[in-house]
Write a structure and sequence with these properties.
This protein has 349 residues and is α+β, with helices and mostly antiparallel strands. It has 11 helices and 16 strands.
């Protein structure tokens, strides 16, 4: 499946898995394993095979649907916290965490967060006021990303990335018909999962509060995954589906913060990259997430004007987006309480 070659010091994907990931990445809507097989019967194996791959590869491979979050009043916040106190992992907007480094000495905690655009100024002010220890805090605000691949004979990196427009304002309200999309997207982000698993996590976390997402009707006690499926369909009807994002273990992974928004990578970097993801930042720059061979490090000379972080392997802090008290399904509005956030982060387990 995913194998490491000691001689070349590179991870390799078997061709069958490569073809499968390419078919998933090219899907124009959110599809389950059976629907993917029907649509791409020549490239996609039977669902039993994909489930077996999932069990075997575990956290070394994931793909998940990505959507235009700006239409739900959300933007992306990227936090880089040097030598952080463990309480930073409790930041309630975080959906992903990684350990990264610039100098191979100081550990930097990266937190990928979903934040309501209407609360951006409040969040900026709160981050400056938190009395939680660290040796440096850097923030990046961005729109939703696009991803390009170079797997085997398939190559889309040279196609470049779309233009973008930073959202100017949002009233903090989510369309009522899309309220359930908030917890669904959070629970499916950056991990391989099933409709059943997503529904079970919603049910376990929200309990009776889950009923507030179904005003005028009651959620199914059996076959609750149909509600998740309906939510994905509603997002697709609104034109919010972007693409499946692919994550898999590779030899070298980098974050690159660029002062300008370049819609393509330098040639020296592009030829060593297998996955490139680009977030347009609010200051007119770009934030890249690159995965490829160790030759990416040698190509850093062409990134001299950029800030580069090496993503480290190994355990990472567990994070959780606290939608159960950040979002009010009854009014379909985002909520903000600096006191609640401080109390949540400063509480000792």
């Amino acid at each position: 499946m995913i194998e490491f070659d000691q001689q070349s010091m590179k991870f390799s994907l078997r061709r069958r898995l490569q073809r499968y990931l390419i078919a998933v990445h090219q899907a124009d809507k959110c599809l389950g394993p059976q629907a993917l097989h029907r649509t791409n019967s020549g490239e996609v194996p039977w669902p039993r095979t994909t489930y077996r791959w999932r069990r075997r590869l575990k956290d070394r491979l994931a793909y998940f649907p990505a959507y235009t979050l700006e239409e739900l009043g959300l933007v992306h916040l990227h936090l880089f916290i040097t030598n952080p106190d463990s309480s930073w992992s409790k930041f309630p907007y975080a959906v992903e965490s990684l350990w990264v480094t610039q100098n191979l000495v100081d550990p930097v905690l990266y937190l990928h967060c979903f934040v309501p655009l209407a609360h951006r100024e409040r969040i900026d002010r709160l981050l400056g006021q938190l009395q939680i220890p660290h040796h440096g805090l850097h923030t990046l605000w961005s729109c939703s990303s696009w991803q390009r691949l170079h797997l085997g004979q398939f190559e889309s990196l040279s196609h470049g990335f779309p233009g973008h427009r930073w959202p100017t304002a949002h009233d903090g309200r989510v369309p009522a018909k899309l309220a359930l999309a908030i917890p669904v997207l959070v629970e499916s982000w950056n991990q391989q999962t099933t409709l059943n698993e997503i529904w079970q996590r919603l049910h376990d976390r929200l309990g009776v509060q889950l009923n507030e997402y179904f005003q005028g009707r009651r959620p199914y006690t059996v076959n609750g995954k149909s509600h998740v499926k309906e939510t994905y369909a509603a997002l697709a009807r609104e034109g919010l589906f972007r693409q499946y994002l692919i994550r898999f273990q590779d030899s070298c992974s980098l974050f690159v913060v660029s002062p300008s928004y370049r819609r393509s990578l330098p040639q020296e970097v592009s030829k060593e990259t297998r996955i490139a993801e680009l977030f347009p930042t609010s200051d007119g720059g770009g934030f890249w997430r690159l995965h490829g061979s160790w030759e990416l490090l040698r190509a850093r000379a062409s990134l001299a004007a950029c800030t580069v972080y090496l993503i480290e392997d190994g355990p990472r802090p567990e994070v959780r987006f606290c939608y159960e008290w950040l979002f009010d399904p009854a009014s379909s509005c985002w909520k903000f309480s600096a006191t609640r956030i401080r109390r949540h982060m400063e509480a000792r387990s």
